[in-house]
Every structure is written in C-alpha cells, then in structure tokens.
Amino acid sequence: MSTRLHRYRFGKKPPHIDACIRALVNHAFDKVPYIREQYQNAGVSPQSIAGLEDLPRLPRIHRNAYDMRFIERHLRSDAKPSRLHSSPTSGTTGLHLDVYASTSETAYRRMLLYRSMRKIVRIPLGFRIVHIWPGVFGAKEVRHYGLGRVFPVSRKLPLATQAALVRKASPHIITGPTTCIELIAEQILSDGAPFPKCNVLCRGETVFPEARDTMRRAFRGHIGDLYSVEEIGNVAWECRENPGVFHIQTDGCHVEIVDSEGQFVPAGTPGSVLLTNLFNWTMPFIRYEVGDIAALARPEDDVCRCGHSGPTLVQFDGRADDYIVREDGSRLSPRVVISAMRRAFRNFEAENNILIPRYKVEQQSERKMHIQVLSPVPLTEQLRDALREGLMKYRLGPIITIERMSELPLEPSGKFRRIISQVSPSENAGKPIHNFNDDEIQATDGAVDLP
Ligand SMILES: [Zn+2]
User: Fold this and answer.
1) Which region among 233-242, 300-309, 362-371, 430-439 has the lowest average model confidence (pLDDT)?
2) pLDDT score recorded for residue 322
3) Residue 398: which of 389, 411, 410 has the closest Cα?
4) Distance from the CA of 222 to the center of ligand 1, in angstroms?
5) Ligand 1 centre from 415 Cα, in Å?
6) pTM of the model
7) Please, what's the b/e burial string for 97-117 (b: 16 or more CB within 10 A of its CB; e: otherwise)?
8) How far is the CA of 310 from the centre of ligand 1 (A)?
9) Rounded to the nearest whole angstrom, what is the distance from the C-alpha of residue 259 to the centroid of ligand 1?
10) The domain 324-442 is classified under which CATH number: 3.30.1660, 3.30.70, 2.60.40, 3.30.300?
C-alpha cells in the first residue's frame, strides 16, 4: 500500500500511523497556506517529523484560529470548495466553522463511524437507524445503505410527531444529540404506550445519568455515547461495559492531552484535548485544540473489561458544559454544579409534584452567577435559598441571581448547555480542578464511576 493510502487503512498499526503523520505534515506544509505559515513561524521543518513521537514539536492550533472569512487559507491550495463536501460545526464556543472534505475522505469518515457504532451495539445487515437531525426531511428521504436504512427525523417537528415517526420506523438504533433523544424519550414515556426495544447512541453532548435513566426507561436497550467532532468525525466510542470511558478511534485520529502551556499531562489528569485528523488532507487538522477537556486513562496498554486495548479517554467533562472558574483560579467541574442543582430542586419538585425540565447556570463574572429555571409553577423562597446555598457551598458567587423562565430554548445546534461560564474557560484549561469527593456527586451522578 502506498504511503499516501495508509490514511484509508482500517486497523492502523503504529508504523502506519507514523507514515500517515509524516505524509500529512509534509502535505499540509506544501499545500495549506495557514499551516505552512504557522510551522515557519515556529521554526519547524516538516522533514523533522518522522511520526507520532515528533508530533509535539509542531505548534498546536486553536479552534479560534480558523477564520471562515479566509477559509481557503485552511484548505489545500488545489482544492475547489464547490466540489467538496462541507459540514458546519456547531461547537460550544459559538464559532461557526465549515469543515471541508473530499468524497473519499467523507466515505472513509462514515465507515469509521459505523465501525465505532459496532463496538457499542450490534448492527444487523438490514439495519434500521433513526437519525435525529436538524434538517426537515419527509419520509421519502430514507437513505439506503445496502440492505440497511437510515430514517432522518427532524428535531424541528413537534415532539409528538417525532415520537410517532420514531415508533413507525421501529429502529434498531436511534442516534442524535442527547438532549433531543431525551426529549423524545420523555414524550414516549408520557404517551404510556409500550415502545419496541431499541438501542440509543448519543452524540455531541455529555450523557448525564438522569438522561440515561430516562432513555433507558423509554427504549429499554443499551444507551451508548459517541464522542464525535465535526473536524474529525468519530473520535471515540463509549465502552460498552464502562459508562463514561471512551476508547479512541485510532484509525481516524490521534489524541493528545496537554495543559494550558501545551505540556503533556500525566494519564489520569484532565487537560485540553488536541486532535490530529489522520485522513483529511483537504482541510488538515493537526494538533487541533478543540476546546474539550478529558484525561487519558492509565495505563494505555491495559486490556479493558470489554476486551479492547488501546488509548482511552476518561473524565470527559468539557464537552457540553463549561467549567466554572473560581476567584482563586481553580476550576469546578460542571458535574459538581449539576449535582448541586439537582439536590436543590429535590424538595421543590416533591412538594409540587413536578419535575424541573430544564435549567441553566451562567457564570457571568468571577463573582456573579445567574440561574434560569424553567418551571411550570412559581419559584418559592425556599427553592431560591437552596439554589444559592448549593452554589455558595463551592465558593461560587457571592452575587447569585435567580430567574423563572417560561421557556429555555435549545441552541441552534440542538444541544443544550446547562452550565456556561463567561470567564474564558478554554484559557483556563489545565488549571487545577476542584477535587470533589465521591459523595458530592455520586448521589445523582453515577457516570463518574471510573475503573
Ligand atoms: Zn472497554
């Protein structure tokens, strides 16, 4: 196989990955103006990059460096954007970025996604997959892949219609953004009619235990999670045996975890995720800082309970919700804040016989927190006190405002972030994390169980 084609190989071994990196870096330096400029500024020559081991010599490139107005600077110079596949990202930074790829790159990327899905659930030959997506498609838009079919269901339809379409498709698998599937699950549960058992593969957002429980009750199958980013495709799949543990799709990407200075952090320590796309030469992403936070599991060569061995991510916290940055510079995991909120809501929910469907906690400055609560009934003074205490316990505030909302819409991407910080959380990646003890979160948050 020619060196250039190693990028499309399945089951890449270390020498293949080295060959991919070598070829990719040389190609990007020759053909992609922005990358050449970055490497020249950093004084590195592509010839000095023989493989993975040399990768850290290259500068990392933050997501914010990609400017859509000058997109051609990020593409190979001989590419014709009108003839490429493009997909818009919907990142938590709110910055819009179109990712370009050739037809063969797009096909390989899709095959990798199916391979990752297969690691979690069985996909029969004549599969039926419902894909919850943002477009508006009618039933005739069913896509055929061999004997398999994918049914797109628009998340812009009324929930009852979405639930009915999902029911009609009688799928083996439902996939889409976590919040969207959770809402459909709630609809199905409130309908009360039994739903044929199916598996769920969530994408794009952290799957919190309460969402997992709702989906499990509605669909009764396996609830799995895929860590995918538009710039790469699937990065990792959630281990079937260990919720919250992600095995990296090493055919598609290489993952590094670094602190705010760009230094590697030891396994088990959370840091910023750097991604290198091994197969996209149209719009190369090399040591790309995507803004997520995770830790590498240790040790890498351990065989997992599921039988897989290979690099694995844990403590995946930064995907949907932000870390809160405290006055002393330390960071607080969104999981801790979410658990505190759930505890604060508990009495109020029981007294009023309701469930709070959605809420949002926003850190507006280091000393100011704002909580928005979607509630069918007025908020009580006791609830307001409980919410304030919940945050102040973690030295957040002291200014805490609380607002009852009649609606809290999803973001345009269909994601919903509960915890948002305006205190530049990405710049603080790698800063110390408030070391929560298990009983602070375990009561409501089982997904932090790590091996
Ligand atoms: Zn595993």
Assistant:
1) 430-439
2) 74
3) 389
4) 15
5) 26
6) 0.74
7) bbbbbbeebbebbeebbebbb
8) 9
9) 26
10) 3.30.300
Residue 228 CA to ligand 1 centre (angstroms): 17
Please report, for residues 378, 424, 444, the alpha-carbon distance to residue 352 in angstroms, rounded to integers and kept in the order given: 10, 37, 20
Using pLDDT thresholds of 50, 70 and 90, give the confidence band for residue 395.
confident
Residues 6+ apart with CB under 8 A from 443: 339, 343
Measured in angstroms, how far is the CA atom of residue 7 from the centroid of ligand 1? 25
User: What spacing in Å lies between the alpha carbon of 22 and ligand 1's midpoint?
Assistant: 30
pLDDT tens for each residue of 287-301 = 998 877 788 997 666
Ligand 1 geometric centre to CA of 238 (Å) = 8
Instruction: Give the separation between CA 168 and CA 107, rounded to whole angstroms.
Output: 29
- What is the CATH code of the structural domain delimited by 1-320? 3.40.50.12780
Question: 331 C-alpha vs ligand 1 centroid, how far in Å?
Answer: 29
CA distances to 80, 114, 430 from 107, in Å:
18, 11, 35
Residues of CATH 3.30.300 domain(s) within the chain?
Answer: 324-442
DSSP state of 137: -
Give how far Cα 88 sits from Cα of 68, 94, 96, 100, 135, Å.
Answer: 11, 12, 7, 9, 13
CA of 206 from ligand 1 middle (Å) equals 18
Residue ranges of the chain assigned to CATH 3.40.50.12780: 1-320
